[in-house]
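Researcher: I'm comparing several assemblies side by side, and this is the next one on my list. It has 1064 residues spread over four chains. Same procedure as the others: predict the full complex and return the structure.
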Amino acid sequence: MSRNRRPIRSGMGRSTPERIFVQGLDLARDIIGTLNFGDMAYLELTGRLPDARQSRVFNAILVTLVEHGMTPMAIVARLTYLGAPESLQSAVAAGLCGMGTTFAGTAEGAARMLESAWAATPEGSPEELARGVVADFRNRRQSVPGIGHNLHKPVDPRTGRLFQVAAEEGYSGRYVDLMRAIGQEAEAVYGKSLPVNATGAIGALCCELGISWRAARGIAVMGRAVGLVGHLVEEQAHPVAAEIWLRTEEEAGEHDTPPAGGRQGG
Amino acid sequence: MSRNRRPIRSGMGRSTPERIFVQGLDLARDIIGTLNFGDMAYLELTGRLPDARQSRVFNAILVTLVEHGMTPMAIVARLTYLGAPESLQSAVAAGLCGMGTTFAGTAEGAARMLESAWAATPEGSPEELARGVVADFRNRRQSVPGIGHNLHKPVDPRTGRLFQVAAEEGYSGRYVDLMRAIGQEAEAVYGKSLPVNATGAIGALCCELGISWRAARGIAVMGRAVGLVGHLVEEQAHPVAAEIWLRTEEEAGEHDTPPAGGRQGG
Amino acid sequence: MSRNRRPIRSGMGRSTPERIFVQGLDLARDIIGTLNFGDMAYLELTGRLPDARQSRVFNAILVTLVEHGMTPMAIVARLTYLGAPESLQSAVAAGLCGMGTTFAGTAEGAARMLESAWAATPEGSPEELARGVVADFRNRRQSVPGIGHNLHKPVDPRTGRLFQVAAEEGYSGRYVDLMRAIGQEAEAVYGKSLPVNATGAIGALCCELGISWRAARGIAVMGRAVGLVGHLVEEQAHPVAAEIWLRTEEEAGEHDTPPAGGRQGG
Amino acid sequence: MSRNRRPIRSGMGRSTPERIFVQGLDLARDIIGTLNFGDMAYLELTGRLPDARQSRVFNAILVTLVEHGMTPMAIVARLTYLGAPESLQSAVAAGLCGMGTTFAGTAEGAARMLESAWAATPEGSPEELARGVVADFRNRRQSVPGIGHNLHKPVDPRTGRLFQVAAEEGYSGRYVDLMRAIGQEAEAVYGKSLPVNATGAIGALCCELGISWRAARGIAVMGRAVGLVGHLVEEQAHPVAAEIWLRTEEEAGEHDTPPAGGRQGG
């Protein structure tokens, strides 16, 4: 075998008969009964314990991401549980699979945008950077991540609260400033209401906490996994999946003919 | 259509342009900046806010479930991320799919066992109930859930800490008593070390908090989802998936002949 | 390290620069252009090529399993694709997760039932064995797998055709006889129409082909994966997922109050 | 509610008590015993039955995609089955989740490239179009899909056979010509061996059959799902997942210290 083997290493956790270590901490002594679930998530992501201020900001991000009502992902989890009630974990998994570019990814995109802009022009002002960022997205005919919302306008109620919490804890810095400036610049350029939305605020707060944009989608997944379990527990007590299925099947099968037009091929 | 339609209802969350409601609470006013991630998980599961004592016990359960080192689920998440780095959510989903009967389900089984035993014999003593429970499992040739551990013996370090936290918060009641009695009875009957393990302790604490065994696997899924995201963030910085794959592929392909014996069919 | 390492072996496939071997055959020379997709599936499952008779029976099984209209699994795949159109594979994966005990597993159960019955009483008659089998399931208060159907009664149209194809190819033997006898016995015992359904016929034909019941669910997964891809290609041209989602979300959010009664916890 | 409801329609399949229709055909009369599994896949994708020539080409594509040895996806399916042996379908699902941009997508990319090139310049010659295509990818610093292979060089053994089958059946037209020309142009421009690989050949053959590039990934998913079931059936008889897991866990946990350098955050 000519390939050089590389070692397999991980610092996430290991065990001895008497002790369990997680991120170098003793699980029984240092974590259980001491950390809340959000702090534990922070420890898993960063390898470090949050201080009280980081804890409050990070927990605020996480709780914002948990519940969004009857989303496609929640419906998917419920329908999957209908088919496989013995595998609640697979129902959550199926739901998470739908957390793709349509509904997620904008917190990630916002964090990346803010990180890149300050990295490229560390001496600029938020207003200068915002002009460049909005012009760039416009030239590429892409929408600016983290601004605008179908329902929540002219203001996303989560944004103000997230920024307030960050300010209270000393984490309202240049990323928050830039995110706000981008929202204002975009409103001026596009001539319509484009408030910073929750994902824009979360992207900015991740940057303030020093969390890379590469981890931002992971934070969203953590939150949504909790929310999907919540939907499945409601489904156990008040099932709706069978009704959603039957209505869909009945209507889809009402007509002899397929949808107009063909699909593929020759 | 002769089928009676049933309504589709959910109390998980809903939105107006100005406000977002989760479990009847105002997300911006009542939740963000106020609740930690574990309290939010409790709210999603139960529809109620935990008090400070419930919060500490429930968060202790959750943080125990997050990280178990390089499990099959963690390896699965990493290998899936290698193939689909654009879909971190699918890598977590793939990992969760493996949380089945081999590694999970015992917290659920322990909670169910404890719930059923007290429901059937509310006036018994823990020792009496334990004798019946252990005899039942023995007769069915099934292992008793929540006791014994391959590595952590004679004591699981998480169990003592979880029971201590529960006692400090006034949640060490008859379910904890029964779980302990079952461990002692099983050790006497089987003549070997069978300490209450972490899943037994968690099952007992879920019962103490009034959370049904049907939700216990969901709590484990919440915890593990956070842990799998942690592994993927480590994988981003310190990848091991390609090495695991290449070693396996090389060794599996070293020999011309398939494993001895056939597989299926005629 | 005291653990004995075990070797990692596989006979599924391997490559050299010039050639690719699958199940010991040369992919380019022996498989491409020669085998149809069903024969390839047979080769993957059994490690052997089917003869013409086995090929016809096995392909008949597979094509029966592909399409069942707008099932929960098909809806799940479509809703997941709505959220993550960049990951068609994850939409199929999400759909497959719902192929659990509610809708699947009966072909597996039927094959296992037939395999066990003949293994235990190789000298019996189908009628004798059927009496024992039906009595056993009745005593355990379990439903007999492979018989009865909500919609297709008094006859499942697939069953007669599958049994006909098997007879034409010389694969209508004692497993088919026993499956038929079980249907008749059950109708007599329960006093209602309980025809052998498609999963019962498929279970019997798997046994006739010498395929273990352990592989039967895998055959169903192969078929359904093809069907779910079909639904996603229809969804690309004629989308319905957004409409299913919006109707569900609108109705679920119409009311201020959650479903009557609580859910969990204290 | 002011939103206009849109109808929910599907032509995939529907049932009456006596009959089951798939794509407008009668399942029992027209499909079972008549179509092979590859023809059924073609019917699901296109809504039409293939003729004998289309059938041979399409089945050749499918069987090429089934088995690739011990890939990350196969390892994932096996490890997931280790954790959840009760849910074979979830193990296949987990495996499919890894079929992302790293290993898949090039058949799709090749088909899209060929479709676009001929659509934009229907009167050109393959050589002219190839020059433009290769220059475009080079300018965008992207690799040309469908050419080159780490192991199979200077020739991918599948390509010649796939093109031969297409030629025998009258489906070697301008898309095959263009794919070949692109391979030659790229070898000239980049000065190294860049043979048309199997995904390039498959992309070209999809175009020849009139199947849109949007469906190409779906064809790959169909094939791979069959292959993953095959790996799980081998795993049932000759398990390797536990060994892969234990070796990885042992090596990852050998050292007290995490990998050098931190991960995230402040």
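Model: For your comparison table: Residues 106-216 of chain D form a domain with the Cytochrome p450-Terp; domain 2 fold (CATH 1.10.230.10).
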